[in-house]
Model the fold of this input.
Amino acid sequence: MTAAPATPTTTPDAIAAVERDHLLPLYAKRDLALVRGEGAYLYGADGRRYLDAMSNYGVAVLGHADPEYAAALADQLATLTTGHQSFGSDVRAQLLEAIARIAPEGLTRSFLSNSGAEAIEAGLKLARLATGRPKVIAFKRAYHGRTLGALAATADPKYRAPFEPLGLKVVHLPFDDAGALVAAVDDQTAAVILEPVQGEAGIYPASDALLRVAREATRAQGALLIADEVQSGFRTGAPWAMSASGVAPDVICTAKALANGFPIGLTLTTEAVSATIQPGSHGSTFGGNPLACRAALVTLQILESRGLYARAARFGTDLVTRIEGLRSPKIRAVRGRGMMIGIDLKERVTPTLKGLQQRGVLALPAGNLTLRLLPPLIWEETQADELLTAMGQVLG
Ligand SMILES: Cc1ncc(COP(=O)(O)O)c(C=O)c1O
Done:
C-alpha cells in the first residue's frame, strides 16, 4: 500500500503521472485529461474548453451532462442500480419495449450485455449455436472488438498477431467483392459478419450490392447475417445504418451510442435463432442491469423526442459539403453517412489531430491517413463553424 497523497490528483501533470505509473501501457496518450463535459464541449484539467468532434469514439450522441439524461440516471441510482436477469425488472421491460419499437421487422429477441465486443461475442456464439457450424466470414479492414471471438473477426494483424491461433475460424474477404463472398459462403458457414459502415477503417459504407449478396448467400446456405452496428448505430439518420439498404440481417449488434456513455451492449435476433438457445448457454452478471437499462431507455427517448436521427442525416451531409468546400490541398477525399465522417489526407493524420487539439477541437484518426469525425448529434451551426475554422487553419 502507498500512503494517500497530501493533495488531490487534479493537475494535468499529476494525473498523467499516476496514469503512466499505474495503468497498463495500452493507449497512445493524447496529453490531455478530461474533467468535465457540457453539451458539445469537454473541459480539460488544463482549464481549456474543447469542442468534442469524437463523442468518445461514437458514444456521446447526446453530448455531455444532458440534464434530462442526468436526471433519469440520478433517479435510477436512488432507486435500484443492480439486478440479475434471472429476476424481472420494470426498467428492463420498458427498454425492451423501446428497442422493439426501433428493431427491424423480425428482430424480436434481445440479449443485453455491457460493451460492443460483448454484443459481437454474443452474436458469434448465437450463430454457432443456431447453425452448429464452425466457419465465420468477415471482411478485410473490419473491426469488431478485442475479446477473443470479436478479435478473430477483426482483420488487422496488428491486433490479432500476438494472440494467434485464435479459436474461431474466420475468413476475411475484400469488402467490395460480392463474387468472392458468394464463393466463400458454404454449408460450413455459421455467419457472415459485417459493418454496414466500416468505422475504424475510415468510414466506408458497404455497397448495397454487397449487402444484398450477403443476405442472399447466407439465406441460401442456412447461415446468419450479422450486422455490426456498434459504431454505426444511431448516428447515420436512423437507428440502424443497415436500414438504408433495405437488407434485413438475422442479428444486429450494437453498443456505444445506445446508452450515451453508460456501458451497455445489445444483440438483437430473430425468433428462429432464439428457439435454438438453451438456458445457461450464455450470460452476463451486469447485463441488463436497471441503471444501464434506464440510461438506454432515456437515450432512445431523447433521440426520438428531439428528432436527432433526422438531424444527424441533415447535419452530416452539410458538414461533408462544408469540408469539401475548404478545398484544402491536404485533403484527398471526404466520405460521410450522417454523423460519421472520414476525411482522407495526403499526409499522416497525427499532426492534423495535434493541430486541431491545440486549437481546441478533439477528433479521431482512422488508420494513418484518415481523419475521423463522430460528433454528438446535438451540434448546432456554431459548432460546425468552430470545426471548419480550426480545420481551415490546420489543413489550409
Ligand atoms: C464496429 C465496431 N464493433 C465493435 C467494437 C468494439 O466495441 P467495444 O470497444 O465497446 O468493445 C467497436 C469499437 O470501436 C466497433 O467500432
